[in-house]
Design brief:
The protein is of the alpha/beta class and 211 residues long. It has nine helices and six strands.
Length: 211
Amino acid sequence: MATDAQIPFAFDVKDLGLADLGKRRTEWAFQSMPVLQTIRKQFIRSQPLKGVRISACLHVTTETANLMVTLRDGGADVLLCASNPLSTQDDVSATLVRDYGIPVFAIKGEDNDSYYAHITAAVEHKPNLTMDDGADLVHALHTKRQDLAASVLGGTEETTTGVIRLRAMAKDGVLKYPIIAVNDALTSTCLTTVTAQDRAPWMASSGLRTS
């Protein structure tokens, strides 16, 4: 089992000893992600992101883990931090570091100081692309390291709240690079509709709601 001293890059996770569980759960989740499976196969061959640095501030879950691995397999230099400390899955953080060589800065329940220190680590990764969920990473780039923000090619934002923040920045003329609102993408709408329909029967039988 790898120890902290054997990992050749900086990271901050709860416990690398959780990696075995995280790897099993990440691989299991990947079996239900056929679109990402196809993209990963293509990325391994074509390496479209070779040399591109990506900083992602997202929910650290098995789904996100598979996205990060896919980007890595496409040639990207990826770093992940948590957009919501309450949703972080510590075993997933551990496997990304130990088994997939992806720097992760995320601990479930981390305090405010740790949260923003982890976002700073994502900023200092000097990204060419950003992936955000709430716009905290983009905000940090624009307030703490404007010199780096000017060289970012583009980014994505996953939440309505984040998009509102970004549109306000754009209106004020301070947003330094283009950002795609994920929820406005046609593919997001189509896939969300399909997966919601797939979930509906068992969620109904469990007494859960699909929205």
